Amino acid sequence: QVQLVESGGGSVQAGDSLRLSCAASGRPFSAYVMGWFRQAPGKERQFVAHINYYGTVTGYADSVKGRFTISRGGKDTVYLQMDSLEPEDTAVYYCVAVPSGSDYSQPSLWRSWGQGTQVTVSS
User: Distance (Å, rounded) from C-alpha 82 to C-alpha 92?
Assistant: First the structure.
């Protein structure tokens, strides 16, 4: 089992940048595919990005491609660098992990979820 704790959320203005961090513990971090989802109140969970075991393969939702960057640090940390933030990015962001998978956009694929960190972007 992997425990995930997100941090780095906050309130910013449109066009600003923010970097989210996820700390993993309980199992070797490098053995898992990692990712980020987000969810706004009253809306469905939305896939944001994923990264493979070694940080060599990444994938992004079309809505964040070119603005967000997912990366891994060491064995137990994953980051989400968010640039050119828009009000539509406002949501609770969740760090996720799974040993392996195929369609990473499906929430049911992911085995471990963090508690979430709030990101609010104002106009």
Answer: 14
Tokens of 38: 């987000």
Tell me the pairing of strands 112-113 and 46-51.
unpaired
Position 8 pLDDT exceeds 80: yes
Give the residue among 35, 99, 42 at the shortest CA–CA distance from 64: 35
pLDDT of 102 higher than 90: no
Q: Does 13 score more than 60 pLDDT?
A: yes
The rounded distance, in Å, linking the Cα atoms of 79 and 9 is: 12
Tokens 């969970």 appear where? 45
Mean confidence (pLDDT) of the chain: 93
What is the distance between the alpha carbons of residues 72 and 21, in angstroms, rounded to a whole number?
10
Q: Coil, strand, or helix at residue 31?
A: helix
Of 28, 68, 24, 32, nearest in space to 52 by CA: 32
Q: Can you say how many angstroms the Cα of residue 47 is from the centroid of all Cα atoms in its chain?
A: 8
Contact 22, 73 (CB under 8 A): no
